[in-house]
Design brief:
The protein is of the alpha/beta class and about 210 residues long. It has nine helices and seven strands. It has a seven-stranded parallel beta sheet with strand order 1-2-3-4-5-6-7.
């Protein structure tokens, strides 16, 4: 996930640094990159998404947070929806009018087993569940869910579950052992001085 505002420097420099990070992530082996910049207008987000898609041409799929219109307009690989966003089934229905089945991913955030099950029933392709561990960026979503709750969600859902919230190189293995199909993070990747090395370390615990 991206958060250019957390990068050092003036706004213009932060954008440049973000695109550099996206390039590093794509060449380093990251599978998906979610563009999550809620302060941008639709036009600005579409421009950033287009640049991100070009930077990630080495292999990573670009997914846009919340904005289905921008994801479609920019030619992104998918959209990620929050619990209060457009329901996954509706997003999938709208996308099916212009895309081949399975060519566009619709993901959903879940902060409970119940919301994860609703996302699955609504035809979401995957769920991002958390926060698993304590982290400032997810404090608004309540106390950490913990690994046991993550394991329960992974066991109950048939679609892939990605863990989020306070994920580090130290605890990523716990999440994968609990059944998570992968991990999602901001600081783990954006703060890395050697992003390729971080991805390589994650590969060792998968």
């Amino acid at each position: 996930m991206t958060d250019r505002r957390s990068l050092a420097g003036a706004p213009g420099l932060a954008r440049t640094l973000l695109l550099e990070k996206i390039t590093q992530a794509a060449t380093g082996g990251v599978d998906w990159i979610q563009i999550r910049e809620p302060d941008l207008s639709g036009r600005e987000l579409a421009e950033l998404a287009g640049e991100a898609i070009r930077c990630a041409a080495a292999g990573a799929a670009i997914v846009i947070n919340d904005r289905l219109d921008v994801a479609c307009a920019a030619g992104a690989r998918g959209v990620h929806l929050g619990e209060r966003s457009l329901p996954p089934r509706e997003a999938g229905r709208l996308v099916s009018l212009r895309s081949a089945p399975g060519s566009f991913l619709v993901g959903a955030s879940a902060h409970s087993l119940e919301s994860g099950m609703l996302a699955e029933e609504g035809s979401a392709d995957y769920v991002i569940f958390g926060p698993v561990y304590r982290t400032p960026s997810k404090a608004a979503f309540g106390e950490p869910q913990g690994v046991r709750r993550l394991e329960e969600v992974c066991r109950r859902l048939r679609i892939p579950v990605l863990a989020i919230g306070g994920i580090t190189l130290v605890n990523a293995g716990e999440c994968l052992a609990a059944g998570a199909a992968g991990i999602a993070a901001i600081r783990l990747f954006q703060d890395a001085t050697d992003l390729g090395a971080v991805v390589a370390e994650l590969g060792k615990v998968s």
